[in-house]
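Researcher: Can you fold this with zinc ion in place?
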Amino acid sequence: MGLIDAYHQWKESRYENHLSNMKSQNKCPDCNGKGYHTFPVNEFVYYTNPYDCPGCNGTGQYSDWEQLK
Ligand SMILES: [Zn+2]
């Protein structure tokens, strides 16, 4: 059990937290319920080229994400 393991566990539990958070709001964990992703370059510009979230097929719903994963 080294630092790396601890780091992975920390990351994992953060992810679990995120998942249950999103689940309680029925939001797709990949896109936080938005239904689309924007390219990181455009993050501070108003998004010019969003694409549908592949995790939830663009619906932004947790239930869809769960079915599609
Ligand atoms: Zn999504």
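Model: Folded with zinc ion in place. Strands lie at 36-37, 51-52.
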